[in-house]
């Protein structure tokens, strides 16, 4: 609004107070050089005039209009006062009250600043009055930590890491330059060995088997079987449940069939290998005692209920024995092995009629 009538020529600000134009006959309008003077004049008039103070209207007009008709310009100022003008027209008492309120509002902030400044000064005073040894320089602390860490790092390095290449080469050259002189009186020491030696699993198993054979032999000799007439060549060998295998006759050691096959070979004059009668040609259809009668019939060898010395006494209960003698009272004495499943030698005298069949010796 200030530049409404400004057409580019120099302009003068004309301020007209409402009190001066009221009633149509006003005194010539007083011009002010600044807004500050205008506000002071309004404040002075506001103390004398009762009621609300009308806003001051300031109209900017060109110079030639202002010189020709100043009165008309003053009366034709219809522009509405701006907010800033309205604020400037407030009574001086109200402005003073607001200024006083703002001063009161700033007092706590100023007091806080003073207290902080005072506390800062007190801290500086305390620090200045403290003994020198209590104050720690951060740079000194960092330097101390770096030195201590370096000491630990150096202590953790291996010894060879502390050697330079030159020192390492010198050490190697010194070591290569050394020589050892052996006296002519020196002699090599002969190593001594104790009585122990390493053994394999097979050797350990063999040692265990030998120990078992010794135990079997001791038990056999204590039984008196030799005195009774037993001549079986393998009475100490391990049985099948002890880990034993087949005899040279291809039957299990110390079984009834192996003992009877041995007696048939002995009677035929075969006391050692190679034997005449073995599993392959004696009982090829089956080696169990229950199968012997069937094998005899397959061979066409004699089978009878009349016993003879040297014949095989065959029983249904999967057992065979050797007929040692035929007695006059109708009994027979038989020799057997493993009758009670104990793998030992024994004799019995039984009626001949109790034997289901007698297998005669194979033909020579």
Q: Would you identify the regions where 5 or more consecutive residues have pLDDT less than 50?
A: 1-27, 48-59, 61-81
Q: How many domains, in number, for the residues?
A: 3
Q: Secondary-structure element order, as H and E?
A: EHHEHHHHHHHHHHHEEEEEE
Radius of gyration: 71 Å
Number of strands: 8
Q: Strand order within the widest sheet?
A: 3-8-4-5-6-7
CATH architecture assignment of the largest domain: Alpha-Beta Complex
Structural class: alpha+beta
Named CATH topology of the largest domain: endopeptidase fold (from Nostoc punctiforme)
What would a concise description of this structure say?
43% of the residues lie in helices and 12% in strands. It is built from 13 helices and 8 strands.
Supply the key terms:
endopeptidase fold (from Nostoc punctiforme); single chain; 13 helices; elongated; 3 domains; 6-stranded antiparallel beta sheet; alpha+beta; 364 residues
Describe the SSE topology:
Layout: E1 11-16, H1 18-21, H2 35-48, E2 57-62, H3 63-68, H4 70-75, H5 83-88, H6 92-129, H7 138-156, H8 165-177, H9 201-223, H10 225-228, H11 256-267, H12 279-282, H13 292-299, E3 303-304, E4 312-315, E5 319-326, E6 331-337, E7 345-351, E8 357-359
């Amino acid at each position: 609004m200030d530049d409404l009538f400004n057409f580019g020529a120099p302009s003068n600000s004309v301020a007209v107070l409402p009190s001066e134009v009221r009633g149509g006959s006003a005194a010539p309008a007083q011009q002010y050089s600044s807004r500050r003077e205008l506000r002071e004049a309004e404040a002075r008039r506001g103390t004398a005039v009762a009621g609300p103070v009308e806003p001051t209207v300031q109209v900017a007009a060109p110079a030639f209009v202002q010189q020709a008709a100043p009165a008309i310009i003053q009366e034709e100022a219809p522009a509405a006062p701006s907010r800033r003008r309205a604020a400037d027209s407030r009574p001086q008492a109200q402005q003073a009250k607001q200024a006083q309120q703002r001063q009161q509002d700033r007092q706590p902030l100023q007091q806080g600043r003073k207290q902080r400044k005072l506390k800062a000064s007190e801290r500086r005073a305390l620090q200045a009055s403290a003994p020198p040894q209590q104050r720690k320089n951060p740079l000194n602390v960092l330097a101390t930590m770096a030195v201590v860490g370096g000491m630990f790092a150096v202590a953790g390095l291996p010894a060879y890491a502390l050697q330079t290449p030159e020192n390492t080469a010198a050490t190697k050259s010194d070591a290569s330059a050394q020589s050892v002189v052996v006296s002519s009186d020196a002699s090599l020491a002969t190593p001594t060995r104790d009585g122990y030696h390493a053994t394999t699993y097979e050797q350990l198993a063999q040692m265990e088997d030998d120990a078992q054979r010794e135990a079997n032999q001791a038990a056999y000799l204590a039984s008196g079987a030799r005195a009774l007439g037993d001549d079986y060549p393998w009475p100490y060998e391990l049985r099948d449940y002890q880990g034993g295998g087949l005899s040279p006759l291809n039957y299990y050691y110390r079984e009834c069939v192996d003992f009877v096959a041995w007696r048939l070979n002995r009677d035929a004059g075969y006391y050692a290998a190679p034997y005449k009668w073995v599993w392959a040609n004696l009982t090829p259809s089956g080696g169990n005692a229950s199968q012997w009668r069937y094998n005899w019939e397959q061979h066409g060898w004699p089978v009878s209920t009349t016993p003879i010395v040297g014949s095989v006494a065959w029983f249904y209960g999967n057992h065979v024995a050797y007929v040692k003698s035929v007695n006059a009272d109708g009994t027979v004495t038989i020799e057997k092995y493993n009758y009670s499943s104990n793998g030992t030698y024994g004799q019995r005298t039984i009626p001949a009629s109790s034997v289901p069949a007698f297998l005669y010796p194979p033909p020579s």
